[in-house]
Structure to design on (318 residues):
């Protein structure tokens, strides 16, 4: 048994089962690999520091103790967890022109990836609803978006994401991987694993469709409905100054939503034949590595309250 664990496959009931996978990563020349390694290391450190700064400012500044900034801080937590799951292993892959990952670690990476991505979908959705209530029902905002309600929503979302992801992993564990163990990607993603399975993949395809409906379709519909009502309400405002102020409160969130949904849609909804594997990996790099860095930048540069809180913290530190 001990010697079998050292092999990329094990023999079980006359069927060769894969025990580990080999992640190819980006198959480029050495100079480009070193450039990518340096760039990703800088982006990773910037992502962690930027999102930690957002969390710290929201936690310590009284002016930021509102539902909107509470949700932004939760989004920052998600934006910290996702790169931590992906980037360290990706850096190792770049340095070694690929790397092996055990079956257990691959499942663990996929589990946390699905959980954090699902939480981001739901957080962006509730943030859209928060903006809808603030602009369309300002007199009822305090009574609707109470502190207790916000906490309950966030806890429910995290539990829902981790529960559904666990169920999904259980279904994947029911598959048999007895063929090639090479994954042409930089992390254990849904589609590459499904392609490597040598047993019936109908249950996994069904679960993917179910997860897509829960975490992509329904949230997308809610976001679109909220912003249609927000735009119609803003256009009814007679004052140009008030109209611009209302638009500015939504612009940051709408920018984040657009970037996130665009990259996810390009990777998982376009036909595989319409894009190469390298393009697919590059797009995956956008939403797993670069989008978590963009979120704190967008909210910092386009938000006066966060700027002010940051300046006050800097003065205290000095």
């Amino acid at each position: 048994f001990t010697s079998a664990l050292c092999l990329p496959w094990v023999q079980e009931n006359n069927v060769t089962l894969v025990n580990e996978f080999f992640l190819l990563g980006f198959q480029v020349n050495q100079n480009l690999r070193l450039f990518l390694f340096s760039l990703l290391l800088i982006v990773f450190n910037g992502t962690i520091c930027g999102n930690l700064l957002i969390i710290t400012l929201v936690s310590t500044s009284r002016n930021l103790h509102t539902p909107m900034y509470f949700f932004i801080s939760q989004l920052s937590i998600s934006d910290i967890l996702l790169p931590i799951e992906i980037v360290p292993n990706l850096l190792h892959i770049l340095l070694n022109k690929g790397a092996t990952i055990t079956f257990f670690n691959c499942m663990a990476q996929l589990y946390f990836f699905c959980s954090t991505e699902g939480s981001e979908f739901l957080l962006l959705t509730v943030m859209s609803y928060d903006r809808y209530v603030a602009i369309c029902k300002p007199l009822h905002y305090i009574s609707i978006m109470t502190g207790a309600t916000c906490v309950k929503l966030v806890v429910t979302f995290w539990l829902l994401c981790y529960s559904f992801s666990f169920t999904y992993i259980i279904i994947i564990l029911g598959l048999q991987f007895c063929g090639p163990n090479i994954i042409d990607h930089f992390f254990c993603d849904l589609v590459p694993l499904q392609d490597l399975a040598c047993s019936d993949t109908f249950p996994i395809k069904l679960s993917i469709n179910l997860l897509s409906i829960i975490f992509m379709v329904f949230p997308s519909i809610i976001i679109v409905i909220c912003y249609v009502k927000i735009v119609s309400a803003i256009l009814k405002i007679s004052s140009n100054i008030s109209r611009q102020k209302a638009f500015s409160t939504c612009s940051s969130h709408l920018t984040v939503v657009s970037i996130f949904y665009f990259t996810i849609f390009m990777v998982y909804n376009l036909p595989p034949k319409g894009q190469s594997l390298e393009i697919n990996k590059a797009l995956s790099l956008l939403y797993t590595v670069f989008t978590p860095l963009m979120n704190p930048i967008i909210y910092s540069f386009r938000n006066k309250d966060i700027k002010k809180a940051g300046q006050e913290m800097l003065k205290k530190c000095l």
In short: Residues 7 and 114 are 28 Å apart (CA to CA).
